[in-house]
């Protein structure tokens, strides 16, 4: 990580990762996990506005 990065942001340069994170629900899941730690799909669903089946990695 860049030492000049005060916020601890992650730089993503992989096009496949960029496409995956362009989805609003995926971004919400990532944010929720980052802020609150590990969670199951059922626990995440109400916080990200999706069903548990949508929150599961395929």
Q: Which structural class do you get from the secondary structure elements?
A: mainly alpha
Catalogue the unreliable spans.
none
> For the report, how would you describe the main beta sheet?
none
Order of helices and strands: HHHH
- The Rg value, from CA coordinates, equals 13 Å
Helical fraction equals: 55-70%
Average residue-wise pLDDT: 85
Form type: globular
User: How many individual β-strands?
Assistant: 0
User: What is the strand content?
Assistant: under 5%
Query: Kindly, what is the distance between the CA atoms of the first and last residues, rounded to a whole number of angstroms?
Result: 28 Å
The domain count comes to 1
Enumerate how many helices there are, as a single number: 4
InterPro entries: WH-like_DNA-bd_sf (IPR036388), WH_DNA-bd_sf (IPR036390)
Organism: Streptomyces atratus
Protein name: Helix-turn-helix domain-containing protein
Region (Disordered): 38-58
Secondary-structure blueprint of this entry?
Elements: H1 15-21, H2 24-36, H3 41-48, H4 52-55
Protein name: Helix-turn-helix domain-containing protein
InterPro entries: WH-like_DNA-bd_sf, WH_DNA-bd_sf
Region (Disordered): 38-58
Please give a structural write-up.
- This protein is mainly alpha-helical.
- The chain has one domain.
- The protein contains four helices and no strands.
- The longest helix has 13 residues.
- It is globular.
- The mean pLDDT is 85.
- This is Helix-turn-helix domain-containing protein.
- It comes from Streptomyces atratus.
């Amino acid at each position: 990580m860049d030492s000049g990065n005060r916020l601890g942001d992650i730089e993503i340069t992989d096009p496949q990762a960029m496409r995956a994170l362009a989805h609003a629900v995926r971004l919400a899941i990532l944010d929720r996990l980052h802020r609150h730690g590990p969670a199951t799909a059922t626990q995440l669903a109400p916080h990200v506005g999706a069903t548990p089946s949508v929150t599961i990695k395929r």
